[in-house]
Amino acid sequence: MTSKQSAHQRPGRILVVEDQPDIQALIAAILRPDGHQVTFANDGEAGVQMAQRDPPDVILLDLMMPKLHGYQVLQALRSHPATQRVAIVVVSAKAYASDQRKALEMGASAFLQKPFEAKALRALVRQQLDKAVLTFWGARGSIAAPGPETVRYGGNTPCVSLSYRGVQIVLDAGTGIRPLGVSLQAAACGKPFEVNLLITHTHWDHIQGFPFFTPAFVPGNRVNVFGPHSTEKPLEKVLRGQMDHEYFPVALGDMAATITVRDVAMDPFQVGPFTVRATYMNHPGMTLGYRLEAEGLIVAYATDTEPFRALLPTVKSGENVAAFARSQDQELIDLVRDADVYIADAQYSPEEYAKKTGWGHTNYVDAVTIAIEANVKRLVLFSHDPMHGDTQIDQKLAHCRALVAAAGKSIEVIAAAESVPLEILAR
Fold this sequence. Notes:
Strand order of the largest sheet: 11-10-9-8-7-6-19
CATH superfamily of the largest domain: Ribonuclease Z/Hydroxyacylglutathione hydrolase-like
Largest sheet: 7 strands, mixed
Oligomer: single chain
Number of domains: 2
Low-confidence stretches: 1-7
Shape: globular
CATH architecture of the largest domain: 4-Layer Sandwich
Strand content: 15-25%
Number of helices: 12
CATH class of the largest domain: Alpha Beta
Number of strands: 19
Structural class: alpha/beta
């Protein structure tokens, strides 16, 4: 690490899939002085094998490779649990826009055209190492909804991973945590690792995947669980309860990893580089929303909540009710304010919400309103209704984008889809 690098910039492990010795030598000369460990694969087949055997931090991949073309390499890496989340930068002399689009569509993180400048390569590698990556493993509210109608957005219940500077944070433990666990364990290649699980509340759709979380069964791993305190049933007791022998054949105590469970207070706490702040959500029972901040990055996760301004006027009357409701909603707005990414409850349409007021969820128009008031950069529509197929979610997304455009705002709106990563670049 040079004296100009800040303390948080860690060297990376870089695998270069490149068959030209002069390009290999050039890349090594550019990256090794920054402390990066650089290894080489001389053909596509070797590149796939090396990456899957010991996943690096970043892969630099040429397209026109012997044995396996770069597209085939991309396909193989993105379909394997060990490498599906590794940053892959295509470095190629092909200047066609169609090739660049195809590489990105197949899962490449970036495209760098040959010949390249040393400064551009160094900056791009640094960017890949410094970015945070959000991946949605389950985005369905209430109950899992697998089937042909939910193929594109997925049917698993809530689970989101956040990876940043080697720290793994998991938000909720719905059924989506099962494929996440498979991916984390494969990427570890037998080495022990630590994962931090933040649970918003203990309704079943947010914890039901935990008994199937593979890393919790592997000796040497550490699983740190954070969640809301309850005077009746503390978080650890709830987790043990759903694994009672009447419901499940394996007990919590049978998990071989070191598992710690911590009740979350309202005071901010640290998880790796992240300062985490929790706020109570307007949802039945004790439910939290989380704000995670690290070195300029802000991620807000408020997946189960109902705006007071939509609920209170339906159950109480009086001229002060609306003003009071708006004041209560301010806590949610403050939690998500200026977030790079706001993962929002957007389960219902306005028409559906009219019939389900008081169920503890938000209609997507209110989600957009909150995002605009809080000045967020990206709004992720989350907690998809189990009755909504892909086409209905497409319509919801289009409507929300139109609302943002009509308000004259530049908020990027996306709908959470399983296995689709969302990159957040450090400021």
